[in-house]
Description:
The protein contains no helices and 11 strands. The chain has strands at 2-7, 10-13, 18-26, 33-39, 46-51, 58-60, 68-73, 78-83, 92-99, 111-112, 116-121. The protein is globular.
Amino acid sequence: QVQLMESGGGLVQAGGSLRLSCATSGRTFSNYAMGWFRQAPGKEREFVAAINWSGGTTNYADSVKGRFTISRDNAKTTVYLQMNSLKPEDTAVYYCAAKRTLSRPPLEYDYWGQGTQVTVSS
């Protein structure tokens, strides 16, 4: 089992920045690729970004490319999502998730956190 806990969400004005963190415990963090996903009210959960076990490979949704950066610290067993130039359409609950290999579809991820709310005001 891998336990995940997100933090860092909040209310920010459009154009602002937030950094989300996902602390993990349980099985060896460096064995897992990590992903960030989001879900807005009335919408399906969607892929945001993912990073492989070493941090050497990353993948982003087109909607966040150039604005968001995913990173990880294997010594701290934590993954981060730096979000810059935030837009109102980024408003959602953000989740981190873990699986053995990097991929995009949410259904392929094995472990999930509880989520953290990000609200971007216009």
